[in-house]
Amino acid sequence: MRFVIIGAGRVGLRTARVLREEGHDIVLVELDRDRVKRAREADFEVVEGDGSREEVLVDAGIEAADALGALTADLNVNFAACMIGKHFGCRTVLRVDEDYREEVYQKYAKEVDEIVYPERLGAIGAKNALLGGSIRAIADIAQHLQVILVTVTEASPMNGYSIEEVALPANARVLAFGKKDGPMGIPLSDDSLETGDRVAVLADFDVLNDVRQLLVGDEVVTTAGGA
């Protein structure tokens, strides 16, 4: 696939490297000359200019691109680039650096295909490293939902029960299930939970502790300190 990435800073350049390693074609758009130089030294194709201007994106090949990632630290530039990308039929990804009010978030979410929060993604990794153990956050969804991957412990109140018998809170859903050392898949109602099995759950932030207590047990909740 071919991607146009606006911004050759920390987020943009790392994203470009990952995509290139997977064999995709990347064009970076960057206004800052020092960043342009660094990106070119890393053997990236770079168009120097303002990513919020249509003529610059045309120079970057937006007409033939599959998707556009607007990953600068400037929300106005990112949003303008996404609108241009939409005009050319691209999938659009918008970077947002702050937790805006819900109504502002919804405004942007309606106009683009995906919103990413680099700080949140970094925070998830840091939290996982700090907590360790049987719970790992996978992703934040919107501003109040999170996907977590839970490993069933011997202390789990649900150890030995089937998926159908797991009574999660109203604002939580089982998304996937995997036996110990096996692949994750669509959960079946008669799948039984045993020590070492993994369960992916989508849950509202308000009920995360309830989900953890149900699937892992009191000991991990106390150790995690409500993080």
UniProtKB/TrEMBL annotation:
Q: What are the recorded GO MF terms, alphabetically?
A: potassium ion transmembrane transporter activity
Q: Where is the RCK N-terminal domain?
A: 1-122
The yes or no answer to whether the keyword NAD is present is: yes
* Cellular component annotations (GO), alphabetically ordered: plasma membrane
Q: Tell me yes or no: is tRNA-binding among this UniProt entry's keywords.
A: no
Tell me the ranges covered by the RCK C-terminal domain, including all copies: 135-217
Which intervals of the chain form a coiled coil?
Answer: none
The record's keywords, sorted A to Z, are: Ion transport, NAD, Potassium, Potassium transport, Transport
Q: What does this protein do?
A: Part of a potassium transport system.
For this entry, the protein name equals TRK potassium uptake system protein
